[in-house]
Design goal:
Elements lengths: L2 H29 L20 H7 L9 E2 L4 E2 L17 E2 L4 E2 L28 E2 L11 E2 L1 E5 L14 H13 L4 E4 L24 H17 L2 H4 L3 E7 L13 H15 L8 E5 L33 H13 L6 E4 L3 H9 L6 E5 L11 H9 L7 E5 L32 H22 L12 H19 L3 H10 L4 E8 L13 H6 L8 H9 L9 H10 L13 H4 L1
Helix pairs in contact: 3-4, 4-6, 8-9, 11-12
């Protein structure tokens, strides 16, 4: 082999070694690019004379202050950083056997409020308000505890003794405490009502003096002196009566009803441009065998037999037709009934009319108005688009179910143990006669077969030992007042719309002590009666025998009270 050929081979080998060295260096520099300083290093690919496109790409200096995405092998900042999708945990309840979808959050109408440590002031807990009525009429929310404005406790005093400034200040205190619903709790005994005139009413729609005075003085002052943002949360209700069934005149194609509603709007707002938040329509019964002509249930003609308190006044449909027209016109937000029986509600429903709520009396002494046909009607209405709610009136039985009557001193008792007449207010005296002597005495004797019959003369001591002592023990258990337990028992009944508690805002007779009604009412939101407490109160209540929970579920259905059925062990054929 010649010398020229050998040198050529050596040059080729050296050139190949040099090329391989350059390629290996460029590869190492490319792989470890972040660790190489951009200020002192020129990329090895510049020595290979690459195409201009590749040269511009790889000749860009590297900024080591910018974070590098090693996955995509390029620098980026916080705006160009790829967003990784977050895993959303499913809220459905699932196990080996089933899988349920995520439950929807509860609304305020589905919650019964309960807050153990509720402050004396401030907002009420979640669920303390209900929205009743069609949305197109923009009904206002109703508080679960409605203040029933009344003057029964000061009826023996003159109108001049009532301090209007004190009334308005106490009403604003109620609003500040969250009790924004007000109703006119007119007297139940017509003999104690203050009339506009001394003559007997002829139509049944005339307004008594108390309603006119409260509309013109209390409601109007609240409308004028309350800020609009607060007034929009208040629900101010008034009342309307239906004409007597034997009224011989004419209601003028609804003009009499429109005049009556227009007068209430004028009394409340001072002008004709207002709107009634809630209108309570009193039920007027039709002819019956036990009626008289003074209260409009009597007979100027021959009464229809067997329809006492079941038939309604023939003017009821005319009144409802006019009220619904006024509701469509924007003059009334909500139409509610007072003491309507289930049969009358079904007649109204068949004719296309509907009441948002129905107000009945319900307390521990007399809970019978709701249970029965009215309860079945409410259950049927739950299946429709417009359910029926119940406003329960007189949860304290006119004041009898309060701490005032727990362990009365001997100075305030008569010989038979009952409180003296001077110890009772007019509302307490009325409830003593109708609720205690009427409903509770009759039904408790019929239901409690083991105890001896209670007479009217010896009524108070059994009532005090059974009802008041049970209330006192439960109140001591929850550390609240007796009145709070009685109101809470009424609140925990079915189809609750609100509880109407009589509230005396007014007068000079209680000026020696501060107005504590809002603080007392707030206590019923700070406790919850368990099943044992409810059963104890039901056992001493004035419920009818068939309304007892265990007799209703077992005795009446399975025949436990049937004397013809023998459940003793001697009847072997029955058990076999």
């Amino acid at each position: 082999m010649s010398t020229t050929t050998t040198s050529t081979i050596h040059q080729s080998i050296r050139f190949g070694i040099m090329v391989l060295t350059l390629i290996s260096q460029s590869t190492i520099a490319f792989l470890f690019q972040p660790s190489i300083s951009s200020s002192t290093h020129q990329h090895p690919f510049h020595l290979l004379k690459l195409p201009p496109q590749l040269t511009r790409v790889y000749s860009t200096p590297v900024d080591h202050d910018t974070p590098v995405d090693h996955e995509n092998n390029r620098p980026h900042d916080k705006y160009t950083r790829p967003i990784k999708p977050q895993l959303i945990k499913s809220k459905e309840r699932s196990n080996f056997w089933y899988s349920d979808s995520a439950p929807a959050p509860l609304t305020e109408d589905q919650v019964l409020p309960y807050q153990p440590k509720l402050d004396a002031d401030g907002p009420l807990p979640f669920g303390s308000y209900r929205t009743v009525g069609l949305p197109q009429y923009e009904p206002k929310r109703t508080c679960l505890v409605t203040a029933g404005l009344t003057f029964q406790n000061v009826r023996k005093q003159n109108r001049e003794d009532i301090e209007l400034e004190r009334i308005i200040a106490n009403a604003q205190t109620m609003i500040d405490s969250g009790f924004t619903s007000f109703q006119l709790n007119l007297p139940q005994d017509p003999k104690t009502s203050l009339r506009l005139h001394d003559n007997d009413q002829t139509t049944g729609m005339e307004t008594n003096a108390e309603q006119v005075w409260m509309e013109e003085n209390i409601y109007r002052r609240l409308v004028q002196e309350t800020p609009p943002s607060v007034l929009s949360l208040c629900n101010l209700g008034t009342r309307l009566s239906i004409p007597y069934w034997n009224y011989e005149g004419s209601i003028g194609n609804g003009s009499m009803i429109r005049q009556r509603i227009g007068q209430s709007i004028l009394n409340i707002f001072g002008h004709a441009g207002g709107c009634i938040d809630s209108l309570q329509v009193d039920f007027r019964a039709g002819p019956g065998p036990k009626t008289d002509s003074k209260n409009g249930r009597g007979s100027r003609s021959e009464p229809e037999p067997g329809k006492y308190q079941e038939s309604m006044s023939p003017y009821t449909l005319d009144v409802m037709d006019t009220l619904q027209d006024m509701q469509r016109e924007g003059l009334i937000r909500s139409i509610n009934g007072v003491n309507f029986p289930a049969s009358a509600l079904r007649q109204l429903k068949d004719c296309g009319f509907h009441l948002d709520t129905n107000q009945v009396t319900c307390n521990i002494l007399d809970p019978n108005d709701y249970y029965g046909d009215l309860q079945k009607f409410c259950q049927e209405a739950d299946l429709t688009e417009r359910p029926m709610k119940i406003i329960r009136n007189s949860p304290l039985a006119g004041g009898l179910l309060a701490d005032k009557f727990c362990r009365i001193s001997h100075r305030s008792r008569s010989r038979n143990g009952s409180p003296l007449a001077a110890y009772l207010t007019p509302s307490e005296e009325w409830s003593y006669k109708h609720a205690l002597e009427g409903s509770w005495l009759k039904n408790f004797n019929a239901r409690d077969r083991k105890s001896a019959d209670i007479t009217k003369k010896g009524l108070w001591l059994p009532f005090e030992n059974k009802v008041m002592e049970t209330l006192y023990n439960i109140a001591l258990k929850h550390r609240v007042d007796v009145a709070a337990v009685a109101v809470r028992w009424t609140m925990q009944q079915d189809h609750l719309g609100s509880v109407l508690v009589g509230t005396n805002l007014n007068a000079r007779y209680d000026s020696e002590r501060p107005f504590t009604r809002p603080k007392d009412l707030r206590k019923c939101f700070a406790l919850h009666l368990d099943e044992e407490d409810m059963d104890r109160l039901w056992s001493v209540s004035g419920a009818k025998p068939l309304m007892n929970e265990y007799e209703n579920d077992f005795g009446n259905e399975w025949g436990f009270d049937d004397p013809s059925v023998d459940f003793s062990n001697t009847n072997t054929k029955l058990w076999l």
